Amino acid sequence: MNGLQLRDITFSYRRKGQGELAVQQHLTWHVPTGVTALLGINGAGKSTLLSIGATALMPKGGKVSLNELDSHAQQTQFRTRVAWMPQQYRAAPGLTVREQVAYSGWLKGMSRDDSWRGATEALARVSLQDLADRPASELSGGQQRRVGLASALVHDAEVLLLDEPTSGLDPEQRAMFRELLVKAGWAWIGLPVADGWAWACTSILLALGTALWAWRPNWSIEVRAS
User: Fold this and answer.
1) pLDDT-based confidence at 72, cuts 50/70/90?
2) Taking a C-beta distance cutoff of 8 angstroms, is the pair 123, 132 a contact?
3) What distance lies between CA 207 and its chain's CA centroid?
């Protein structure tokens, strides 16, 4: 089966004085083609699940793969094909907007010239080309979120993993996000339950602690893990 797959994933946090807190237990999920919204209240495990998919966190058990690539055994190749925009995006001190995005491309394996060209194109896609030479740390919160998206888009990854990407954006900027994501082959987005535009996604995954409920385009409902 092609695409991003999580198989038998188990993950827990260790909390001082409380032992292990299970977040996911034996989760198996194949991210479908199109845009999948991962909905849930704060603390439901959305960021953890997206972080596992991006290899920012490693599960205690199970396997994450993209097509033939194993995220553990072939981590470098896996990361070049999966883009990750965390919920808290911070620009590196001292870099301009274009340098910030180009640096992200270089970290994903692009050459210096390719990452610079890719940064210019990615900034145009999020309507920040006019601010390319401004220090990234001087941008507003909404503009920095767009720099984060450009950093995820710079290397033309097969899969986009975005954690609350529309937080702090105005309606016009949210519409821009929607237009970009419609063109994505695979995108998995963590969103608060109250985020209205999630319902325009091609499928919806609802996080309820260690349980996941999935809605498909035909609006049938099924329990995926518990």
Assistant:
1) confident
2) yes
3) 16
Q: Could you tell me if 98 and 132 are in contact, meaning their C-beta atoms sit under 8 angstroms apart? A: yes
pTM: 0.79
* Cβ-based neighbours of 73, under 8 Å, separated by 6 or more: none
Among 172, 134, 169, which Cα is nearest to 149's?
A: 169
SS (H, E, C) 187-201: EEEEECCCCHHHHHC
Q: How would DSSP label each residue in 133-168?
A: TSBGGGS-HHHHHHHHHHHHHTT--SEEEEESTTTT
Of 5, 94, 18, give the one whose Cα is nearest residue 52.
Answer: 5
Average pLDDT over residues 203-225: 54
Q: What residue ranges define each of the domains in the chain, with the CATH number in brackets?
A: 4-225 (3.40.50.300)
Q: What is the pLDDT of residues 100-133, one digit of tens each?
A: 999 999 988 899 999 999 999 999 988 899 999 9
Per-residue DSSP letters for 10-23?
EEEEEETTTEEEEE
